[in-house]
Amino acid sequence: MVRRPADVVVTISDDRGEIVTFNQVPLDKIIRENKSLGYVIGLLWFKRELPEFAQQYIEFVLKLTADHGPAVSGAYNAIVTTRAGKDLMSALASGILTIGPRFGGAVSDAAKYFREAMHKQMKPVEFVDHMKQVVKINIPGIGHRIKSVQNPDMRVVLLKDFILKNFPKHPHLDYALEVEKVTTSKRNNLILNVDGCIGIT
User: Fold this and answer.
1) What's the pLDDT score for residue 6?
2) pLDDT (tens digit, 9 = 90+) per residue, 68-90?
3) Strands 13-14 and 21-22, sheet pairing
4) Domain coordinates in residue numbering, the chain
5) Which CATH architecture group holds 106-200?
6) Which residues contact 141 (CB under 8 A, 6 or more apart)?
7) What is the pLDDT of residue 66?
8) What's the pLDDT score for residue 99?
9) How many beta carbons lie within 10 A of that of residue 56, not counting itself?
10) Torsion angle of the four alpha carbons 177, 164, 114, 199, in this order, in degrees rounded to the nearest 10
11) What's phi and psi for 142, nearest 5 deg?
């Protein structure tokens, strides 16, 4: 008996019918009804229609983080790769491969560590001490080289404002802001940064 390899099964999108569907919603309906990118991301990543505030939030984050200028490592590497004569895909890959704990990669680590701290019901000061003494890393999503309490990152200000006005509840942001009070009492540039704000929400 010859064994036949299993087919790949995808439950998110389907192109077998007359029209492509995203989580069983026809693509032409998405286009006709002028659905947002946040709506489409909800269907593809979360397999459901997200509430309106969450759709708007996704688009808000994309707008805020669309460009950091040429000085950050991802953009710099993409520029260097382009100047070396490489194609667009190579330059893009070069920039993306630079994402790490010190550039853009703090989003997932902030989500992980803040969620864990809240799950364990750590007080903010306990969390700060735990990260320093046990985990032995800087708190992902906290700190900025240039911005400070006196000179805040407007992206974070706008993001916090959006969350506070539009989310029905925001316990993760509330917790992160309490952690920020502890960290900024030590140094004024240990603020909740944009990666941290995105990660905890």
Assistant:
1) 64
2) 788 888 899 999 999 999 999 99
3) antiparallel
4) 106-200
5) Orthogonal Bundle (1.10)
6) 106, 107, 109, 110, 114, 176, 192, 193, 195, 196, 197, 199, 200
7) 86
8) 86
9) 15
10) -120
11) -120, 130
